[in-house]
Design a protein that fits this description.
The complex is a heterodimer of chains A (about 550) and B (about 325). Chain A is about 75% helix and about 0% strand. With about 550 residues, chain A is mainly α. In chain A, helix 3 packs antiparallel against helix 9, helix 11 packs antiparallel against helix 12 and helix 14 crosses helix 17. Chain B is α/β, with parallel strands linked by helices and about 325 residues long. In chain B, strand 1, helix 2 and strand 2 form a beta-alpha-beta unit. The chains are: A mainly alpha (about 550), B alpha/beta (about 325).
Chain lengths: ~550, ~325
Amino acid sequence: MKPEGSNSRNNSYCSPDVFQTVLGWRYIPIIVAILVLIPVGTVMLSFLTPAGEIWQHLVETTLSRLLLNSFWLALGVAVSSAVLGVSLAWFTAVCDFPGRKIFSWGLLLPLAFPAYVLAFVTLGLFDFTGPIQTSLRSWSGTELFWFPNVRSRMGVIIVMTLAFYPYVYLLARNAFLTQGKRSLEAAQSLGLNSTQGFFKVALPMARPWIASGVMLVLMETLADFGTVAVFNYDTFTTAIYKAWFSMFSLSAASQLASLLIVIVFVLIVIEQQFRSRIRYAEPKQSSRVPPIILTGWQSWAVTGFASAALFFAFLLPITQLFIWATHTFAEEFNQRYLGFLWHSLMLSGLAALLICTISILMIYSARRHPDMVARVAVRIATIGYALPGVVLAVGIYVPLAWVDNWFSQMAMQLFSIETGFLFQGTLIVMLIAYMTRFLAVGYNPIDSAMQRVTLSIDEASMGLGVSGWSMLKKIHLPILKGGIFTAVTLVFVDVMKEMPITLMTRPFGWDTLSVRIFEMTSEGEWEQAALPAVALVLTGLIPIAMLTRQAEK
Amino acid sequence: MLKIYFGYFMRVIFICIALFGTNFSYAEQVVVYSARIEKLIKPMFDTFTKKTGIPVKFVTDKAGVLLARLRAEGKNTPANMLITTDAGNLWEAVQEGLLVPIESDELEANIPTYLRDPQKKWFGLSVRARTIVYNSDKVKPAELSTYEDLANTKWQGRLCLRTSKKVYNQSLVAMMIAEHGKEKTEQIVSGWVANLATDPLSNDTKAMEFVAAGKCDVTIVNSYYYGRLIEKIPKLPLAIFWPNQDGSGVHVNISGAGITKSTKSKKAAVMLLEFLSSEKAQKLFTDVNMEYPANPKVSPDSIVTSWGSFKQNRMNVVKAGELQTEAVKLMDRAGYR
């Protein structure tokens, strides 16, 4: 064992000694970072292939507009997701109002919606040809000049907010559930009212959670292609797609995507800088502080607000999908759906398990060795979420095919057997590929929860003779539980919705629900896609229901 | 030394494979990378397998992604055949040296020259006609003539278009560049943009719905989208118009296929390709998606025939690939989103 435990002066946290016995502990984040660096590096290697002509064209024509569009979109979605997510989380976690119980889990449901499906359904309802404008026109008998243009920047921001706010909601709610009431109590003892208590105490204390959630929203927004394509709202990602699929330059596309990584990396570093200045004290667990009971117009205003969010983000689109699904059910449904469902469940479940385990290992390792190397490794390991999925998919595939080729060549030379491709289309490769993309989704919630496990907790428990595995089980696990459940749910649902990596790495004839959605939507048959979409949303509800049950315990 | 380690490693790998599914194959088969979705290609494969006993395995994905896969896999690729839904991507596959020439009298007899690669590296299998659809309550067919005419100011505020990001529009503009040159084409595209009643739409069906709802009067779509929409809602006031009949003809693109450099099963792959061009399979192409058969001996589906016959643009579709990048740049310059 290395004598690393001795340099405890820069160990702001002290971790259970069980980890000190595991050799190579220190290298976990580094190994994972290298795994993630392979595809990301492959994408960045594109700079070796010049694509000056396409860059020049973009700069001369559309680039400035695209950048501006991306900027406003990212800002708009981040701010409005933060406001919507945090406010809903606060109300459901700390206040009492009619329907609170239902809203507290109901507001998570939109998570199960792929954003582009929500976009398509919402646009279908509210656009010029949709039922709402059509019936208004026939009722009033005139053109609706006052009706806002839905295919606009505002429209995209609203839809993406509805799709992505649950990330913030889920994380912020965890924060408020574990310290919200307690912090309010503290605020009250300082003579602040509950509004002041929220802004001055609870909100700052929930910062790491909120920041993690907003960061996920930002990455998702910047990497999105499907949603903006439905609105024909051109962003930076549009340029990536155009360079690759229309101008046949994967290298130009990869170069553009690399810029996206750099931008997100800078954002993360800035956020971390802010965060590291703040120290978070632990809350006292199992405090039984009564909720703030809202009365009169306040309670109904909150109920109305939560209902509106639930209605537009979930009830309305799922109803529309259901209606479409009944149209196509007879034609589309067959026994194969069991297979799609099973594949989706298995992939998502295994990926969630793998990614969350790795996240926990990384977090403990980084906690044990909180140095620059660990920090950088963690940042690199979680950067895959910032890339458009399809670009990352190729970044995964190119080295994979290289290894496969090398192996079959070796097998030929050494044993004269034809092996074909060994790795391609195996579950292991698919899972590693998902890990490179979704590690941030698993890591962020658990890492935030870890902020609660402080030095003094560890010291106190050790003082009481609780250490090692039993400290993990008795002290850490109860504190981290919420974070872990959140991570599992988010990864599960995200993997289930994932398309490009699944498409590219799946074995022959092996389809999932999201592959089925791709099949339908790529030919513009959105109504046909309703059935797999409904199936996907309903399946996504399983982990959400489990999450809710544990959160309410 | 190396051999021992390698042996170890291989054993581990084999166990993994045994556990997690496999790409092994011993019997003869054809492996296809298809940008044509399952629903629109599997019926043909099934018929082929029934006829010859040769199984067909396939994966679907976007054409650009499939090309990247083929490139990465090199000559060891498991894929024997690439199917796309446009000529541009096949042209690009040839540029990247992913396809091999096919010597087949049967294919050459079945597929007309303008629908196949001059180097014989790919063949069109179905024809997708991009034509004009108009609101039959608001437009008289006599008002319509050509794609180019839609740039005329008389269509101001009356035109709807799908986004320029779709390859069908890129191919259309590429063929216009081949015919008129860059300068004139850019004027035409700018004229279209000036005539738009609303921002470009995300797909052909949406564009037709806007025409039917009266937001605009005309649009340009692939005919099978018209067929699908009318089949679903027959009462829509939409009608089809075949433009450029006094000139070069209606713009057509293809869904087509080529054979990859893969060392395996080339013979079976050629057999499959020949089968796909045969009358039996060609009938399926038009039946499953209301496309036009590439083989002139086969007549289209009865609904499709009811839209009338028309003159196709007989310039080789390879031009759509050659000039696609040019077309994309031109549309960017013209402000066509």
